[in-house]
Amino acid sequence: MNSIHVARKPLIHITDSTSQRMWLVSSMAGLVILQSAISDNWYSLLIAVSALLAAILMELAINGARGNFTLHDGSAVTTALVLTLLLPNSVHPVIAVLSALFAIGIVKHAYGGLGSNWLNPALGGWLFASLSWPPNFEQALDGSALQRLYQAVERGLIDPSGSPLAILKIAGYKVSTQDSFLTNLFNNVLFSRINAELPAGYLDFFAFTGPGIIADRGIGFLIIGTIIITATRINKPIIPAVYIGVYVLLVRLFGAIPFGGAFGNGDMLFALLNGGIILSAFILAADPATGTKSYQAGILTAAIAAILGFLFRFFGGAPFGALYGIMVANALVPAIRHLEIKFLYTNRR
After folding, report:
1. N or C: which terminus of the chain has fewer CB atoms within 10 Å of its end residue's CB?
2. In degrees, to the nearest 5, what angle opens at C-alpha 246 toward C-alphas 241 and 250?
3. Strands 346-348 and 2-4
4. How confident is the model at residue 7 (pLDDT cuts 50, 70, 90)?
5. Of the candidates 11, 23, 31, 115, which has an alpha carbon nearest to the alpha carbon of residue 77?
6. Which stretch of 192-206, 211-225, 259-273, 304-318 has the lowest confidence by average pLDDT?
7. Alpha carbon of residue 167 to chain centroid
8. Which residues are 213's β-sheet partners?
9. C-alpha angle 283/289/292, rounded to 5°?
10. In this structure, are residues 163 and 261 in contact, taking their beta carbons and an 8 Å threshold?
């Protein structure tokens, strides 16, 4: 005889409605886009508007064919803006339009709409764009910090400490005068008291003005947005906390090895400030529409995504390996849901 045993808190409860979550995430994404747009003659904003209009038109077309209206829930807007964060800031707007159409029309609605999609629609749009126009992506990222780093490693440049920032400086990366001034200030006022020193170059990433994906170029506002999202509890903090914790642990232990360093000497700060890690942890990994239902399974999925993201980036040579890690974790969610139903919710006698 089988009976169903319901745990005390079987689901990852989120008190806000779907539309509240979506519009708040959209607002935060908009601020990140604005930070990026300020330093690229508003081209980031053009990409965002192009993706947004395409997503809204596709959503309206599908709504009209189905006879219902779902634009008000904000999911199409959120998909377009999160997709924008994943795109290089100088990619052609037509690519943003086609990616948004694919994200809404194929990834979101082909399987029944919001909540039925097996993959985050914005991630699906990014994958479609990056695989369909690889030369355009490479050209748009030409000169970005991560591209220069991996090109330097391919040429054989390494650093005895395994520091990516040191390799970048060898390859010609210049630290701004503002970064140097603030770094010296922090070292003299704060870090000297604990016998530590912050190398110059990290602070530039908080207001990066070179080529890169928009999420990395606007990481200052992205961090502020994730704090607001966490404070308002529209996503459960345990998911990004596990993702970040597992990721930085792996970086600390093994992250220096690909750059010529030794075990236990990885640069955790550099790893967090680029490659879409913050976006992956707080937005993509914590997306309830493509996630599991229990805390235990959510933690497992976040850990898997972090492990895969680390492997893709540091040993697979993919600068944005975190995104591939999230996609593989999304694909594993149905199997993980089956396991959580079997072991958490069903008591077999």
Report:
1. N
2. 150
3. antiparallel
4. very low
5. 23
6. 192-206
7. 24
8. 88
9. 95
10. yes
Please list, in sequence order, all residues whose beta carbon lies within 8 angstroms of the beta carbon of residue 117, skipping any fewer than 6 positions away: 107, 108, 110, 111, 124, 289, 290
Which residues are 4's β-sheet partners? 346
Rounded CA gap, 90 and 82, in Å?
Answer: 16
In this structure, which amino acid lies at residue 258?
P
Decide: helix, strand or coil at residue 227: helix
Q: What tens digit of pLDDT does each residue of 142-182 get?
A: 989 999 999 999 999 989 999 999 999 998 888 999 999 99
Q: Which residue has the tokens 């792996």?
A: 250
Q: Which residue has the tokens 């229990």?
A: 294
Read off the tokens for 146. 């991560």
The DSSP secondary structure of 37-94, one letter per residue, reads HHTTTTHHHHHHHHHHHHHHHHHHHHHHHHT---GGGSHHHHHHHHHHHHSBTTS-HH
Note the Cα 128 to chain centre separation in Å: 16
Do residues 205 and 264 make contact, with C-beta atoms less than 8 angstroms apart? Answer: no
Amino acid residing at 298: G
Which neighbouring-strand residues pair with 3? Answer: 347
Alpha-carbon distances, residue 71 vs 29, 67, 218, 336 (angstroms): 18, 12, 27, 30
Q: How far, in Å, are 83, 139, 285, 339, 343 from residue 313 at the CA level? A: 20, 20, 17, 28, 33
CB-CB contact of 121 with 113 (8 Å): no
How many whole angstroms from its chain centre is CA 112?
A: 25
Cα–Cα dist 32/229, whole Å? 14
* pTM attached to this predicted model: 0.90
- CA–CA distance, 84 with 100 (Å, rounded to integer): 9
Which DSSP string do the residues of 135-170 spell out, in sequence order? HHHHHHTTT-HHHHHHHHHHTT---TT--HHHHHHH
Other CB atoms within 10 A of residue 207 CB? 17
What is the rounded average pLDDT of the residues 29-35? 97
Separation in Å, CA 268 to CA 98, 160, 233, 277: 35, 17, 26, 11
Gap between the Cα atoms of 272 and 34, Å rounded = 21
What mean pLDDT comes out for the span 5-20?
51
For residue 264, what is the DSSP state? T
